[in-house]
Amino acid sequence: MRIMLLLLFPVLLSFSAKGQLQDDILGEWVTGSGKGHIKIERFGSHFYGKIVWLKEPLDPETGKPNTDKNNPNDAKKSNPVYGLQVIKDFVYDAENGEWHDGTIYDPENGKTYSCRIRMKDKNTLDVRGYVGISMLGRSESWFRIK
Questions:
Q1: Residue-wise pLDDT tens digits, 35-68
Q2: Which helix (H) or strand (E) holds 22?
Q3: Quick check: 100 and 137 in contact, CB under 8 A?
Q4: What secondary structure does DSSP assign to 60-89, as a single string?
Q5: Where are the domains positioned within the chain?
Q6: Residue 88 in this model has a pLDDT that exceeds 90
Q7: What fold does the segment set 25-144 form as a domain?
Q8: Phi/psi class of residue 97: alpha, beta or left (left: φ > 0; alpha: ψ in -120 to 50)?
Q9: How far is 10 from 107, CA to CA, in rounded Å?
């Protein structure tokens, strides 16, 4: 029995480490531009993120909350940017240590991009949005808000 436990112990540790690493992305992050904070949450096996803080929450012209005015869908142009879900449908790939198969939406230009996210360290994300292949894209670092 002891031999069995000794053999299984490393396997059990690896499962818990993978589960913990998968959830390391959870929390609130400041974007590379510093213009917003994104809260990343998990629902089932998928990860999502929404805007929970804006450096400039009000439209300077109207004095009203900023809306998603660049959205290509006319029905969504009046939606507030605050609370907007900008990260959708990511899944964790333990083999590559990244979150992928999701999209990221940029309310500044109204475009949605394929995206992958990797952790540089416990407090830094490498977020890469791209069109088609990852080589055709842009990366920025996001930093954990403690």
A1: 999 999 999 999 999 999 999 999 999 999 999 9
A2: helix 2-22
A3: no
A4: TTTSSBPB-TT-SSGGGTTSBSTT-EEEEE
A5: 25-144
A6: yes
A7: Lipocalin (2.40.128)
A8: left
A9: 45
